[in-house]
Amino acid sequence: MIQGGRSGVGRYVIALADALLDRGIDLHIAGLDSDREHFPKITAAQWVSIPESARGGAKNLLWHQAMLPGLVKRGGYDVVHIPSYRRMMMSCPTAQVATIHDCAPFILADKYDALRGFFGRKIVPWIARRMDRVIAVSATAGEDIQRYLRVNEENLRVIPNGIDHSCFQPPPAMQLEQFRKKHQLAKPYLIYIARFEHPAKNHVRLIEAFGRFLEAGGSDWELVLGGAPWHGKEVIDEACERSAHRESIRMVGFVDDDELPLWYSAAEALAFPSLMEGFGFPVIEAQACGTLVVASDATSLREINGPAAIRFDPMSVDSIFEALTLLGGLSPEERALRVKQGIEWAAQYRWDNVAERCEAVYREVADG
After folding, report:
1. Where are the alpha helices (DSSP H) in 254-350?
2. Which of 99, 140, 246, 315 has its CA at a distance of 20 to 30 angstroms from the CA of residue 161?
3. Does residue 306 lie in a domain region?
């Protein structure tokens, strides 16, 4: 589930592992050797190789069910933490904790193909109820886990994600100027950071609303779309090609971690129209960088957005357009206030806090 750190789950694993190691936890990580580089603090003895033959989705799932239980038993581990509902073990020889980031198969019927949708809706609830503890990354996700997976409240712990504040902070003006020159960012721009996934990430409505925004007076703005390709990217490509303003839309692909804070900081705002999020990392990351946020008021984003974000109905192009119009009309004083509020809001989300609370959960189940 590490996936080179190119997904929310992957970033969760990498950041949480680093923070747990800082707390002195004897942590061993099972992963593909191609992801080994993301864990420089892990020794050879602490790395458990998942064979390359188990890379694929179905094969990887089977490895977790057929091979991991025996490995856990031989290793004498106190607790196993599975970072995604898709890899929870049906049978585990020791205490098992799982993080469930969202209940997407129940909320977005067309997010997955028939087989994965069936697994998510029919098999996962049964396995989830076998966990010693389930961690939800937001209160909204926790409510969904109780509703759809029927996990008992006493076995559920809500532990919101963190961000790396040493990376996500307002950069020096000179560094920002050099970044703009490097990427030829002469115009003000909106940025959307999300994998290119249709319809869940809702790029198409954003592209349409942005076109209307340009026609209504924001003609010197650009829309920058960054992220890894995923299911349905061709639909997003077609929406860009159809747009009368396609010359103002820039696809930059996956954004590396070292440049991500600069992409946020140089933008006028992060636009985040996602239909469903268990947490929504970019919203917090952008605010920590001093960037305004215009975001969906749906699922967990209602609680994650905070007081500084401009909110909209992600199902309505009209609502997205109105939010962009409000953004474009902010006075310098209003912008400064929202930036300050956003930085203060983002400050509460820290990985050291997450690791401390996860360790408490591990000790609960290990001692129980």
Report:
1. 260-266, 281-288, 301-304, 317-328, 332-346
2. 315
3. yes
pTM score of the predicted model? 0.92
CA nearest neighbour of 236 among 276, 203, 274: 203
Strand pairing report for 249-253 and 269-272: unpaired
pLDDT grade for 91, boundaries at 50, 70 and 90: very high
The CA distance from 364 to 189, in Å, is 47
Q: Which domain holds residue 48?
A: 3-162+350-367
pLDDT tens digits, one per residue of 22-53: 999 999 999 999 999 999 999 999 999 999 99
CA–CA distance, 178 with 195 (Å, rounded to integer) = 26
DSSP secondary structure of 181-246:
HHTT--S-EEEEES-B-TTTT-HHHHHHHHHHHHHTT-TT-EEEEE--B-TTHHHHHHHHHH-TTG
Q: Is there a domain that residue 220 lies in? A: yes
Are 273 and 246 in contact, with CB atoms under 8 Å apart? no
Q: Which amino acid is at 118?
A: F
Q: How many residues does the chain have?
A: 368
